[in-house]
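Thread: quick sanity check before group meeting

JM: Hey all, I'm pulling together slides for Thursday and realized we never actually wrote out the predicted structure for the chain we discussed last week. Dropping the sequence here so it's in one place. If anyone has concerns about the input, flag it before I start.
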Amino acid sequence: MLFMLKLLENYKEYKSDLSSSQLDRIRQLAKGQKPEYLFISCSDSRVMPNLFTKSEPGSLFELQNAGNIIPAYGAEAGRGMVATIDYAVSVLKVNNIIICGHTFCGAMQALFDPETLNKLPDVAKWLEHSEVARRIAHNEVQDGDKIKLTRAAVEANVVVQMNNIATHPSVARAIACNSINLNGWVYDLETTDILVYDKTHKRFTEA
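JM (edit): ok, ran it. Output follows.
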């Protein structure tokens, strides 16, 4: 209850600090939205897309879940996720999709410590959609170091999910029409650096 009171106090401070121009912008958004980006990231509380991209209100259409995972179309997954993607692409006409992983991702760490999921069967089932990333990481990291494995899995997972989202009909159509850009990022929690996936050279480079 005290925590909720704190959030409400923060809200009151936020509202009192709004400038007239910010309030005008919010009122305009109430009439309708036209975001430029579908931003898919991990639900980790340390990942704050609006903060590190300095995005204006209304510019990001956000979808967050454990491990920034997007199952291939037709795979067992929540229909809400499929609906969110379809709405963003077909109705809102976003021009860009960004799938953003991050360092020290608990979901990716769990890929190499499956015993931690013994009492979390739903999480274990969800992470099966990142099995390809786990295998890629094992192929890349021969010494079995879990820190290196996790880092490799974080990057591989972004690419895997980029491939998965491209199987969704609305996304596939948009890609075929060159009306959307599909991007992969990794956000470093320690340094705040962003690595961007280079599709030509198939590697991540600094933004």
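AS: nice. Strands lie at 37-42, 60-65, 96-102, 181-187, 194-198, 203-206. The chain has nine helices and six strands.
JM: adding both to the slides.
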